[in-house]
């Protein structure tokens, strides 16, 4: 397909027309969670009204669904008929009403019957609150439910298969250019109520039996449990009945209606569209290994749940989450389960394995025992994220996932948790928006980090013994943190005392170490990156470990300290090689040192073998230095001097920490210092580039070395490394001339990016055609990343049009946009596009809030006052079109721009002095100059 700006203008002409009557209330997905500045709608009801009471409890559901994936006589396409019968009971006396939840459905009839004698219970007119989505069924005057008696609630209704990837929704794939429709589900957190009336909170566990009336032979159907019966229901349709599920929460029910095929072995099967069956073997093989490993680790085999004799994992073309743990029918984005070695990168392969591990772990931590409510989501997601790394490591020990965990989970959690807007792991939620928002880095990453911290304290074997007891004792139940603490305390009486404060208090401490001749003093204060002079007095139980030489990094069992200040006595302390706190970054805190100690650490890092400092502590030092500088705790000049050691670093974990820190710093470098910063980047990456080389990975190289190459090549090429750029462009030209010989997957991101950056519109159209014709979701992601490197307004506009069109699926739109704005040279072009085409962008993404989100993510990266002024003028002129919420959001984004600008100006002298000195050849002497480091630090440490 030949692509041009005119082509897209014609393609989307209807969109602009439709916009005139556009009134969608869909919520935009955050493009960058840290910069998602949209104002959350205030609850329009009392908070407690969003929750059901505990008067009535369900015990069993019988559900029949009849979907229409095309229009039939008297039936609209993408609707479904439903019939649900819920067995309920109460243990209370005098219950005079029944509350449950429904959404986006039309109830055509309902009744309440006492099961023992089939007598109809007299009721009054139902009451429905569209805001809380609670349906109240009042009983007739003087009528109450009898305690411990079963009643049957029956509902007949018509539902909608929307395209927003929630509830029972519609998706599609292309076959010979035509859409093939299918139906799938996503019920977490609060969307089962779109498919059937239910008690849609995780604590209301019940059994479910599902029947689906579907067209045959066009469609096959799948659900949590195996099929027990299938019989013709009417001409061209079959009624398929699935086995009764174990007792579980409504959000775990799942079903798929699709022309799928299955690849199965050993009670596991991978479901996918027929054209993707050649991409399912890896996930099947890896899934079988991971299930066996988790069976053994938890010592509660998946197959011991009698209703679950098999596990299916399905690849769904449109999927809002990364994957979902529905018991027995796990669902995934295609990119997170479909793999082919010739079209997927090594990192994508790891992503698939770890996501599978995460979802399989949920079969215990989430499905078998379930968080009672979303305020303790971490009981589900923290464990699954922990297993994502440490269970996968059981079957893939060469991937060094234990090391990756530190940078990807510990350090990433700290980013969000250093903001005043963070929240504790256990945190009240009520509304749907609040329930959705709690699924964040705190519940996932911090949850996993705190579990790892306790594992090292209790020792791995004791920790595992306690977890096994926790699972067995709470099987089929809903749980609160106290259930976990009780299990841990049985094996270590201090477990709860040390763990609970990390779950109920937001944030984490900065631990400051000062030295004297007789030892070291440890003090703690909450770390808030944007508020270094705050007065928050929160304290945590500190897990302390330390090393003074290369031989002391292996023992990571901490001693917990419960005081604000603590002394570590050590004879002749002033003569130690260095003092490094928090071995292998097991504890969840940052560390700052006095000037003398930073000087010793700097000397060690710049010495042979980095002074024996453990690779994870090098990664810790890198991350801490970037963030202590960002938080005005350590001067930027000092931090950058010490970090010059990276010129000799050859390990992945410290480089990944460095890339994360440099990404943030690059967005705050003054525009006039960009050239100096480029010199700095090319210098510190020079040896790393010579180490990894522009080449495909060898069969014997370490997996993390392959990952390091991808980062090094990306940064080198982005900043104009001549050899990198030349090699990447040559490889792109070769691929352009002969598309049948593909670029190695582990080189594609940099080759596609540099080929588009340095290429022509013909190259751009060539790669776009590869996107349109690719059968691989992982390859399409790599192409979107590459096309985001376009540098002209013409090509940026084509790309932005594509993102707003249906050519880029909804699930990929936000990432595709992020790929563009991560290239700072595109920002003025993106700003101009959004101002000229805001109607197209709003229609393509669901609402004008998406326009606000796009502007805010752009403003977070922008360094141009004139561009800021243009955006400000635009929103004033178009206030009525944007709407108040979007207008207010962009105003917040403009305020954030000013905050970022103030940060840049406040730190510019320090940073530019370092960069100028380095550009003039002086940095080599600076970083070894301990006395200079001391002088720069001493006042800051005293002030802190």
From TrEMBL:
Signal peptide location: 1-28
Positions with a binding annotation for Zn(2+): 358, 362, 381
Domain ERAP1-like C-terminal: 579-881
Cofactor(s) the protein needs: Zn(2+)
Main localization, broad class: membrane
Record's keyword annotation contains Zinc: yes
Enzyme category, top tier: hydrolase
Active site, per annotation: 359 (proton acceptor)
UniProt keyword annotations, A-Z: Aminopeptidase, Cell membrane, Disulfide bond, Glycoprotein, GPI-anchor, Hydrolase, Lipoprotein, Membrane, Metal-binding, Metalloprotease, Protease, Signal, Transmembrane, Transmembrane helix, Zinc
Record GO cellular component, one term: cytoplasm
Subcellular location: Cell membrane
GO molecular function, one term: zinc ion binding
Pfam families xref list: ERAP1_C, Peptidase_M1, Peptidase_M1_N
Name of the protein this chain belongs to: Aminopeptidase
Lineage of the species this protein comes from: Eukaryota, Metazoa, Ecdysozoa, Arthropoda, Hexapoda
